[in-house]
Each structure stands twice: as structure tokens, then as C-alpha cells.
Amino acid sequence: MKKIVKGLLVTMLATTLLAGCGSNTNNAGSTDGGTSGGGEAKSVKLKMFIAQPRFKEHYDKYIADFVAKEKAEKNIDVSVQLEMPTADNAAQILKTRLASNDAPDIFALHAINEIPSYYKAGYLEDLSDQPFVGKLLESVKPSVTTTDGKVVAVPLETLSWGYLYNKKIFTDLGITPPKTLTEMKAVVEKLKANKVTPFVLSYKEAWIPQLVLPLAAGALINTEDADFIERMNKDEGSFTELKAMFDIFDLINANGTEKATEVGGDDGAAAFAAGKGAMWLQGPWYAETILKSNPDLDFGVAPLPINDNPDATLINLSASTSLAVSKSTKNKEVALDFINYILDDTASNAFFQALKFNPISTVHTYESYPWVNDATAYVKEGKSYQDPAIPQSVKDEVGKGLQAYYAGQLSQDDVLKALDKAWKSYNKVNK
User: Fold this and answer.
1) Confidence (pLDDT) at 17
2) What is the pLDDT of residue 258?
3) pLDDT mean values, one per 10 residues, the chain (431 residues)
């Protein structure tokens, strides 16, 4: 859940509520001793860092509601500075913030790929005793729990994904989701014979083409290469073992929409919503954007075949975006208040539903979306796996490498060598 990026795109937004009770100061400060009711209000500036700019409207509203709640219940005037970079740039920007002692009070991390290293580096506040923890579904809690048993983030997104497909196109042509690579090739030919472009391509943002990696890795790890991650962490493995990912990637690239490196995620969502391609290598985290373009679109989620072993055609189960609190925050009370507000007993349900996120808590009572049910059907059949723990720095390299491969600038071997090098560099830093 990008492109050959030139420069940084950072969207900044500030949500400010004017101070009341005779005070209009707006200096950042500790919230310890905040008072409710009358008296002079404290002023707190809270910095947040969440790489989901497409959800800006929803975060604006939720943050404004939180600010009003803090004022009403604790007489604390909170102004929120929300930084929303694109996912391609977020990891490097956050690392720079942390290294320069400019850590946001609250920041988003990928639960599987980033929490372990950030926790080891001492950046994350222990949230184990916070009220939200008791509201998490037991199936979700492990994704934000460290190996020594500490909960260090509140999850936002849990995912069951493979690729998206247009159900109407499939039904009209009598197509069912393929179970093998050979069957996928047949689906592609049938679509083309009926003048339907098989795939939407959107590689402007590097994180999108890299999605083929966790799908291919997960499938092969679960069928042929169970100790791949462990051996890579010991510098004993190689991405040449995953070279099969190019079989499906090449098929997608040869049968997709044009100018892929000029099309980002939002434009890809609009193209998919408009029926310009029958399938999209993308996850249901784009549901809200897709349905904004076409509220009537009926789309599903299916596992991506990578070879001719049907047992390797599996749904990826993972938790991604999660919110952590900086260990160094000077605004701990308000930061913790917001973290808990994410799973507020009354407000959270509508927030998660508006974002089209899966339920992750006992406070979430809304009905699961159709695409969630599609993926769940595969999970119930045992056709799923837990997202492999691939370092984020390696995933970033995958995205850039596959962009360059698509553009004809790198060979398959060039990409694989670059990935091996990236993982070895990660190991050196994280020993």
C-alpha cells in the first residue's frame, strides 16, 4: 500500500482551536497538570506524522473533534501540526526528524516492517497500560506487540490483500479469479480478446510495483523456502531465490495501461474505478479513493498467482499503518489522549468506517465490506499467510529497482543484486 521521485512532497496542515477562558497563548508546553472546568487553559502544540495524504479530509475532522474534546474535558487548548508526506518519502523524512531530535509527538509506522527496528533504537513509548490495548482484537494485538511483550502502537489498518479485480467485467465474460500463473495467462488473453485491458499500471510511486515482492515472497516462503527471512537476516540467503516474481510481474507489465511511470496511486484508482483495466496490483486500502471516483463499482480481492502451484496462490494477511508515541515527547499526556481517542468508544466506529478500514477493535461494530469478505473466504480455506517481515529499507529498494526494471534501465539480475546488497546493509546497522 510510487514513482521515480524527484524531490519531496510534503503536505502540511495545521488544525488550531482558539484558546478560551481568558487565554489565547499558543506556545508548546508540557500538559502535565492540565485542568478541567474553569481556570486558565494550557496551550499545547502536538506534532503528528502520518503518510496517508489521501485521507487528509478524514484526519482533519477527527483531529478537530479530538481538539474539542480536550478543551471540553481538560481545558487544554491543543493545536495540531499534521505532516502528511507521500509513502515514498515518509521513512527517510521520519528518520531525519528522529536523528535531528525533531521527533513528532505521534508518528505512523508500518507494524510489521518498522516497529521492531524503531523499538530497538529506543524511539517508541511503551503503551501497554493504555486503555486502547484492552479494546484490540486478539488477532490484531500481536502486530503491535514487541518480542518482549510491550504494546508500542495503536494499529489503524489490518489488511487481507492480493490484487483487485472488477467483478462486473469478470462476471460479464464468465471469468473467475485464476488459481495458477497459466490460468492467469488465459484470463489475460480472454480479456484482450474482448477488448478489455487486463491490468491498470501505476508505477509513478515506487511502493506500488514493490507490492509484487511481499506477494511473491509470502507465496514461496509458505511453499518452498520457509527459512528465507531467517537466512537473509544472517546474510546466508539471496533474492535469486525469489526470481519467480518476475514471471507474474512481466505478465502484468506486458498487458497493462500505458505510461505507468506517469500514473500514481490516485490516478490508478480513478482508472480502475472507470473500468480502464480489469485488475490492479493494489490492496483494498485504496477502497475509499476508488469508491470516491465510482461509488457503484463492484470490485473484489483475490490472491495473486506467481507460479503453477495453486497452493502458492495465497492472500497476504498483515497489519500496516500504526500510530506510535515518541519516547522523547514533551506532550505525553495529550499524545496519549489522542492515541486512545483512535479507539474511542463512540467516535472510532465512524472514523474507521469512513476510511474503509477493517474493524480492529471491540468498539467497531460496522459490517465488513464486500472485499473484506472476499479475502476472508480464502483465509477460511487456509489460503493465506502472514506478511513476511522484510525490512522497510529493502522494500524501498525493491520499489526503485522495479521502477527501473519496468523502464528498461535495469535487468532482473541487477534488481536482485541490489536487493541482496540492501538487506546486507540493513543487517550491518541492526546487528
Assistant:
1) 32
2) 95
3) 35 34 35 50 94 93 97 96 90 90 94 89 96 92 93 92 96 98 98 98 94 92 92 95 94 97 95 98 92 95 96 90 96 97 96 90 89 88 88 90 95 96 92 69
Extract the C-alpha cell encoding 218. Answer: 509470502
Q: Choose among 82, 96, 118, 80: nearest CA to 8.
A: 96
Count how many Cα atoms sit within 13 Å of the Cα of residue 284 in the half-sphere of its side chain: 30
**C-beta of residue 245 within 8 angstroms of C-beta of residue 216:** yes
Q: What is the pLDDT of residue 27?
A: 36
Task: Identify which of 168, 157, 360 has the alpha carbon closest to the alpha carbon of residue 272.
Answer: 168
Task: Pick the closest to residue 239 from 214, 206, 222 (CA basis).
Answer: 214
Interatomic CA distance for residues 179 and 170, integer angstroms: 15
